[in-house]
Automatic annotation (TrEMBL):
Superkingdom to which the source organism belongs: Bacteria
Name of the featured protein: 2Fe-2S iron-sulfur cluster binding domain-containing protein
GO molecular function: iron-sulfur cluster binding
Record SUPFAM superfamilies: 2Fe-2S ferredoxin-like
Length: 110
């Protein structure tokens, strides 16, 4: 019997408005694609998710597991922009997994 996938629910804050999002594990390649499609964000994620352009910068609260770890190009890209705190992330580097459940994601102005 195939295991049923549970909904992953989190809150996105864009321009001060809270938007509840509900999705499933692996429904998008990463959080950047989900945000871009669901919220119709222009000029968001211009490099296509390789962690270089920083047009998908967010702050996070409540990420768990692997989602809370910065890997690949992310730390270097964020440091070049002066973002050194752990809560600031590139949404292209966060996968759609249960580690997002209950989190709060704030989209930053570019």
């Amino acid at each position: 019997m195939e295991k049923e996938l549970k909904n992953i629910t989190f809150t996105v804050i864009e321009n001060g408005t809270q938007i509840p999002i509900s999705t499933r594990h692996g429904s998008y390649p990463n959080l950047m694609y989900l945000l871009k499609e669901e919220l119709q964000l222009e000029s968001f994620g211009e490099c296509g998710g390789v962690g270089r352009c920083a047009t998908c910068v967010i702050t996070t609260k409540g990420l768990t597991g692997a989602a809370a770890i910065k890997e690949r190009n992310e730390p270097t890209t964020l440091e070049k922009l002066g973002h050194s705190d752990e809560a600031t992330r590139l949404s292209c580097q966060i996968y759609i997994t249960p580690d997002l459940d209950g989190a709060e994601i704030t989209i930053l102005e570019i």
